[in-house]
Amino acid sequence: MKISRPFIHSVLAFAIVMLFVQCNKKNNTTEKSAETPAAQATSISGKLPIAYVNIDSLLQKYNYAKDLNESLLRRAENSRANVN
């Protein structure tokens, strides 16, 4: 029992060190690769595409959203009735 504890601690310490090494390698490679596509996108189009969605008008005019909202309200009422 006394011998296995130091062994387990040393294995865990080694695993933690390896995780830090692996995370450091991944961060360095992702930073370099993440900069390249962004630079290419801005040089090709000049601007990054941005889309704005007006949620209020979408919820008012989109029938599927209305139907889902009604079914959610019905389920909430049924759950409330079951609890009572």
Strand and helix map with partners:
Layout: H1 4-45, H2 55-61, H3 63-83
Provide structural commentary.
The chain has 84 residues and is mainly α. It folds into two domains: 1-49; 51-84. The chain contains three helices and no strands. The chain has helices at residues 4-45, 55-61, 63-83. The N and C termini lie far apart (55 Å).
The whole-number mean of residue pLDDT values reads: 75
Name the beta content range. under 5%
Q: Give me the count of strands.
A: 0
Instruction: Estimate percent helicity.
Output: over 70%
Whole-number count of domains: 2
Give the helices and strands as they follow along the chain.
HHH
Structural class: mainly alpha
Distance between the termini: 55 Å
DSSP summary: helix tally: 3
Any idea what the radius of gyration is? 27 Å
Q: Uncertain runs with pLDDT below 50, 5 residues or more?
A: none
Shape field = flat
Main pleated sheet: none
